[in-house]
Amino acid sequence: MFDLAQAAVEAALAAGARYADARLMIVRYEQMAARNGVVEDLTQTETAGIGVRALIGSSWGFHATPELSDEAARRAGRQAAAVARASARVAGPELELAPAPVVVDSWSSTWEEHPLDDVSLGERADQLVAVTEAIAAAGVPVGQASHQIWDTEKWFVSSEGSRIDQRLVECGAVIDATAIGDGETQRRSYPGVRGQYGTRGWELVRELDLLGNAPRIAEEAQALLRAPQCPSGTTTLILGSEQMALQIHESIGHAVELDRILGWEAAFAGTSWLDPAQLGSLRYGSEIMNVTADATLPGALGSFGYDDEGVPAQRVDIVRDGTWVGVLSGRDSAPLIGRESGGMVRADGPARLPMVRMTNVGLLPGDSSLEEMIAATDDGIYMDTNRSWSIDDKRLNFQFGCEIAWEVKDGKLGRMLRNPTYTGIGPQFWASMDMVGGPDEWRFWGTANCGKGQPMQVGHTGHPSVPARFADVRVGVR
Amino acid sequence: MAWDASTDEAAQAGLERCEAVLAKVGARAQALVTFERGHSALTRFANSRIHQNVASDEEHVRLRVIVGEGQVAQATTTRTDPESLDRLVEQTLAAAALRPADPEFPGLAEPAELADVDHWDDATAAADPDARAAVVADFVAAGDGMESAGYCSTDAAVHVLATSTGIRCTSRYAMAQLDGIHRAPTAAGVPSDGYAQATSQRLADLDGGAAGSVAAAKARAGVAPIELDPGSYEVVLEPKAVAALLLFPAWLGFNAKAHQEGTSFVHLGEQQMDERIDLWDDATDPRALGRPYDAEGTPKRRLDLVRAGVTVGLAHDRRTARLAGVEPTGSSIGNESFGGYPTDLFLGAGHQTREELIASVERGLLVTDLWYNRILDPKTQVVTGLTRNGLFLIEDGQITRPVQNLRYTQSVVAALGPGHVLGVGDDAVLVSNEGGVVHCPSLHLAAFAFTGNARG
Question: Would you say B432 and B201 are in contact if contact means Cβ atoms under 8 Å apart?
């Protein structure tokens, strides 16, 4: 496979590129979904292709082909160069690539049970059917369960001499129960609304104990229909680690993407409230806030060996003791603020251009616990499991809804509350964080559906997270 | 002149592959095969330069088999050589054999006459990166030095669907889009963004200069916005904003599966929306972009969803139609777990110009676009999101001031409810958004709940 990628790179160089790289990818994918005891969707996909980047002057071009042949690879290389030439019609300033080591390597994630090869299709289906039957048996009208599996092989060649092959096996699952009332619906999900995914084998899914949790979420969905509305006001807010993962993803992860900061996403995903001139001095949050982007965490969904520019996976500090110190970057963006590439450029398939993506952007654990936060709160609300998410194009003004909440009164959990929402402005919200869960509660959440780019790409991101407490938050927005 | 698929190389290649796959499956199963070959290209610009410029050739074969009394599996491959297709067939059959029978499986569609639909343009299908760059250059130049960002794209594909019941469908489509902003500098440092878009079957219809001028004018008008308190405001929603809201009733309301499960707001036959609202799905309309058949091979026809404010229709695939005892509406998107979806949505245009809609507002807001829209509850259709790329105060029928972006939290059905639609524009256009393509005009609504501003 290296030969085809090499042929594409050679063709791009021969067509005038000053730099070129090519990724040949073969991806096996499975999605299975069951509802109310019936497997309604089983889709298995094999995607193969070569994507070529060519740089001419300051202009990029990209071309992809699904055909795995020497002729098609060379044609893709030439086409990538032709596209780069067209880019020069509306050209920008000189473009410098951050240095990358020349690497010849082979890397693979690890797994105990390969989800596709070691676990039968029947077993995978039986689990989803059993879970949804258990939800139905609990009297909830809609029970759903699904899993997704990816087995990705990549061969990367650059004109600088790198030759890297990688294999990533990723999987995860989600279940949910929806109870229907007169005027509204209430859903409970497990382990989170987007499920739980990791760069691991089927052991991840077994550890979730989906069947064991099905009756609980069914019961909670029904109880939510009878629960009082989350009150409106300003109060102390405790967030569980699943909702914290979403909070981190939306109001830190996207905000520190350097392509957004530089305006490259201005028309679609948006920009960022952050100004590179303030990197190293801006207060992002309270002093107990420490955030890293770490692509080396074993088993986390944003982990890999090398990014799609051939840069090794690394850990980068993003927020240290509350101060903004780092960004998510790649080889063409990092030099614009005088930095090295963070190794964070990835594409969701061979036909897509690699772009800055989150790796594992997460909050480092503190020294508290959920139990201690509740005990230390006289009057507040504990929310968990994301239900809705909306944030402005600068990643400042957010409004998030959760599936479930409880009153906290005099240090104890009280009544369940339905339709909980909260809203805030990023830096003010993070500045109000006064308690952070400890290492025992540190969990690597994985989000397999992060949309970004045009054409849209779906990224896999990881979010190490813990419960945390925030002061004076507006809740119950209606 | 009607398209002759028998002389189209891609269509013939697709038919050959589909026939080959059906032959490999043979009598072992019922089967539905689709083939698609196309080319997609997108020229993206930011900071007034082309920074991402991509093109890809695409081809795939999808196979769905039904073994015995409803053991179903489907698989897709981009590898369409004979050996890979052999593997596709054997793996899919093996997967189906391991599945339990689905007692609700509705069976495959039978051959039926299709509407004469050909949403195609040779020049768009053949457009090269220079042609897209020229549109971008015109858009950028219209800003007269302002920073700009956006994209120009072209897509074209030939599609074939064949079944063991004898269906042989071919279709093709072409599409071109221009979507961009200009960014006027402000004293506060945060640029004022102005937006414009154009969507068509023909790249030649995209006037980069005209769209760029609209976006630039909006950007300039948005400098020095005032902050407005949250509250309920009368609004004029431009087509992009209307399209963003219509996604939610289309996705979770008119979806017959959601209706059967009780999570839809729809009560058929009731006056749930204002009498000015007519909503329908129609891939056969010359202005649309869709195929004349759905993912199950069912012919598409016009499907009325709301007529004079009365909800009258649901989007069915074969499964939900069987359960409901009605005919499928050609609304399958190939995912029974999801249900039916109206892929070519039309909201009927009115007779008022955009200026007349604005003139009829005593005090309200002109909304260019709604962004990051997320549904809080499908049954009530309460959605939250933010304004973007141009928000203006209207006083006594005149646009008086730009306004800082606001967050809204609003039921879409209530916003369109009886008595709440005060005017419908004559400016209906094709708009592409997250959920597909919608043809819709501007709307003047009596009340829209804004729940937050820049302070939270």
Answer: no
